[in-house]
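Sample entry copied in:
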Amino acid sequence: MTRIVAGSVGGRSIAVPAKGTRPTSDRVREAIFSRLEHLDVLDGARVLDLYAGSGALGLEAASRGATAVTLVDSARPAADVARRNVAALGLTGVRVTTETAERFAASLTTTASRPGSGTGAAGLDLVFLDPPYDLAEDALALVLTHLATPGVLADGAVVVVERSTRTPEPAWPAGLAPFARKDYGETAVYYAEPTAAEPSETEPSDAPPSDSVGA
């Protein structure tokens, strides 16, 4: 049985898809959210839950104070279960989208600079990625690259990635840097944050030219 650990609907059970998903255990979810609460990123957060399955991670965030949550899963049966969970819990500000993570993340790169044009418009505060363990590393890297596009993530945002401890660490793109990892049995949880782009070596310097001549 999967349940919401804490918050406004803490203790409530949620349905999980009959097959094709690997729900995050209550123990791991509780540990993740303990860290996120310590980082103070939940209250009022704009949240994206990719490869959402039942929606447990996004729903937990909504229960703990997130105000806008989008659950994304490419499998219609999983998305239908997530919609039923949203309705059963009565949480507001949660929507479910049936789409691949790759396409949804790519769509954020085109809307990030358009005020009022979608989930990524104001910048996401928190993103969960809990893909199937057999997802190809380059597919995950592509999604992370889309998320690292300027304007998709808010300043101070946190990206949480769950992988098997037997798979390589995600290939982090420029603009997204890991700052912690925690293992729970066979589950590895990575935490990353947006970083400022490095200035190009070809960009002109802001410093005034020097009148001195080197020796």
